[in-house]
Amino acid sequence: MVVPSSKLQDLIEEIRGAKTQAQEREVIQKECAHIRASFRDGDPLHRHRQLAKLLYVHMLGYPAHFGQMECLKLIASPRFTDKRVGYLGAMLLLDERQDAHLLITNSIKNDLSQGIQAVQGLALCTLSTVGSAEMCRDLATEVEKLLLQPGPYVRKKAVLTAVHIIRKVPELSNIFLPPCAQLLHERHHGVLLGTITLITELCERSPAALKHFRKVVPQLVQILWTLVTTGYSTEHSISGVSDPFLQVQILRLLRILGRNHEESSETMNDLLAQVATNTDTSRNAGNAVLFETVLTIMDIRSVAGLRVLAVNILGRFLLNSDKNIRYVALTSLLRVVQSDHSAVQRHRPTVVECLREPDASLSRRALELSLALVNSSNVRAMTQELQSFLESCPPDLRADCASGILLAAERFAPTKRWHIDTILRVLTMAGTHVRDDAVANLTQLIGGAQELHAYSVRRLYSALAEDISQQPLVQVAAWCIGEYGDLLLEGSCEETEPLQVEEEEVLALLEKVLQSHMSLPATRGYALTALMKLSTRLRGDNNRIRQVVSVYGSCLDVELQQRAVEYNALFQKYDYMRAAILEKMPLVERGGTQDEEAKESKEAQHSEAAVIPTEPQTSKLLDLLDLLDGTSGAAQPPPPLEPSSEGTSVHLLDLPCVSPAPASIPNLKVFEREGLQLTLSFVRPPGTPALLLIMVTAINTSEADVTHFVCQAAVPKSFQLQLQAPSGDTVPAQGGLPMTQLLRILNPKKAPLRLKLRLTYNHFGQSVQEIFEVNNLPVETWQ
Amino acid sequence: MIKFFLMVNKQGQTRLSKYYEHVEINKRTLLETEVIKSCLSRSNEQCSFIEFKDFKLIYRQYAALFIVVGVNDTENEMAIYEFIHNFVEVLDEYFSRVLRSVPCVQL
Q1: Would you call B47 and A358 a contact, using CB atoms and an 8 Å cutoff?
Q2: Of A96, A284, A361, which is closest to B82 when you measure between CB atoms?
Q3: 3-state DSSP: chain B helix, strand, coil percent, rounded to 5?
Q4: Are A488 and A530 in contact (CB under 8 A)?
Q5: CB contact under 8 A, B82 and A91
Q6: What are the DSSP calls for A589-600, one per residue?
Q7: ipTM value > 0.95
Q8: Angstroms from B79 CA to nearest CA on chain A
Q9: Do B47 and A284 touch (CB under 8 A)?
Q10: For residue range B52-96, what is the model confidence (pLDDT) as tens digits?
């Protein structure tokens, strides 16, 4: 028996009547079974009703794929009710992934050329929603024909379909270029809006279209002018603004057209000023238009006065009580702060106010903007504000805020003491969130500020005594106490309150850090080294320190164990060297890593003078990417190879100590000028056949010193060259101590050696630069 | 460009969803739950624009219904905010009592 099919309304009522989820599912399953049966039977009269029910069920989330073929049948039917439901079904059930969608191409084609507006509208809608690339290609010409038809209903839909086609198949843009100019004359806002969107898409995708459409800028300006200046029109007004959506779209298109183009920007200037001043800002619609105007002014080549106007508008937005407006204002100010810094500075107090917003997105924007606004004149006030923000801000913003403050402090610190104070405060408040190099920066800073050693060590000691949980703070404090412990115990310092500290207290504190379970292994390492340094700084006997060090000699952590064992050795076997090794460190070169600090402290027994000349050279050598003349530097600062290095020095780097081997290759004199002579001596170590060591010796027999002597070398590409640090950069006069430098050349291919040298130095008050190629290289150097 | 348009009720059920860029079916539910979570957790004093992955979300609350629009970077947020209201007004005109019914409308 054929059950009469129910109407859609009945089905909806039935579903609504279901009390539980299970009941609803039951009803739907029953109905789907009916629908499936009906489709199988192929009842043409009620097909659309069945499909409508199926679509409803689909919207509730149940599977409906078996209705796809029915959509096709319905679309092909001549009745309008069928077509309507069929197209709707096609839009909901079919998408690009299904193959069935191609089958509707033909139906759409027929419907497009039919001439009945409603049907054409349906077809266009479907094409613009689910049209795939192939469909678009087939039907583009049809759509283009419809663009110029009379009657805004179809034209509007045709334009929207054209936008979709352009997005899918950008190559078809040239089909749609010609009609655009004509469409701009349209009165109907719907078509106009669609046209503007179409032109925007075309311009965004192809620079040729962009150039083409620059011609219509005057026309656009005219349209917008009429919109803004005509009075109230009921059809298009939204809270007093005449069609804000169209205005916004036109402004956006003007922005794209005027970017980087003087002429167009000039035509727009008056209009933008007019819009900016005349728009009613009491409601959101007006503000939206104003916002778009500001964005456009910022992007095109506008006159300075206009830009200032734009920034002022943004400033006014900031004072608005509506959160949304403040948010967009902050976002846009962030964009312009780079280019119009001074204009934005005027609104700094308001920006700082916004830091206190409870809303997370607003305060994040305000934070970024505040950090961008810090400059040398307002740095103290700003850091004050930012620090109070740091105390109360949500945890995800803490890291940004802390690193921002540190960066700003670094760039604009008025005095060193202020800088140290600021970093201290940041470390105390948000220690766990700072970047890793904050510790290194702070130690370097403190090390460099001689006069502030006493002050900083006292501050750090008090901070540490209060709280040992913030790791970066603990690390810096431990390092400082170790270095400047004697200053700590001395007594008074005029910059802080007098702090009487006993030796025992200091040692106790460091031991507490060592033993605390909150300390990271790196922190423990710092504390142990600090304890060790104190053994030379403190006046009492070192029993306590010796005890601690020997206990840690059996610690489970390998790093600590190694340190403790080495320090133990220092106490026992090498006690005479202890004072020299644990001297105060020289200033670390900026950018040096922790490793280099450790190495330098161990090399402190070399004469200080030897360290300093290597520093300028090492900074050049450290720059591995500096491929000037093809030279490549050694990555680690090697100790100088002068005879001044004692035999007991600890060479952490495995460098071959070159003793001039039996000279089987004759020396070569390569350069002579005004008393300065350069000689090359060659060594081929027997173990490594591809290696050639060249010792460059410079002797000065003239009366004046040669200073700032730098020698660089270049070799052909197949060779590898390593320049080691020279013994110095001054070649003293009258045949004084010669300057030497070692070159290592690897020649795996045994190619003929070619060497080019570049010398720069000062002699007799003149700076000299010489570049020359070394000729007559003996054959033994490369064979 | 508008990426998607959602209507969600306070219990977190999607009442209407329309995607203008293809998103897999299973990813859609995931996306919707996350979007709903971020919108529902905001209080009244906070602004209506949220940054979410690589979209911006603009939402508006009407009684028990949230309308959320996801856009990419180039859109004017306040214009979209106005657009949402325009949409609701249109629905209200065309079908009365729009807030309580489930509209079957193809956008």
Answers
A1: no
A2: A284
A3: 30, 30, 35
A4: no
A5: no
A6: PTT--HHHHHHH
A7: no
A8: 5
A9: no
A10: 888 889 999 888 888 999 998 888 888 899 999 989 888 888 877
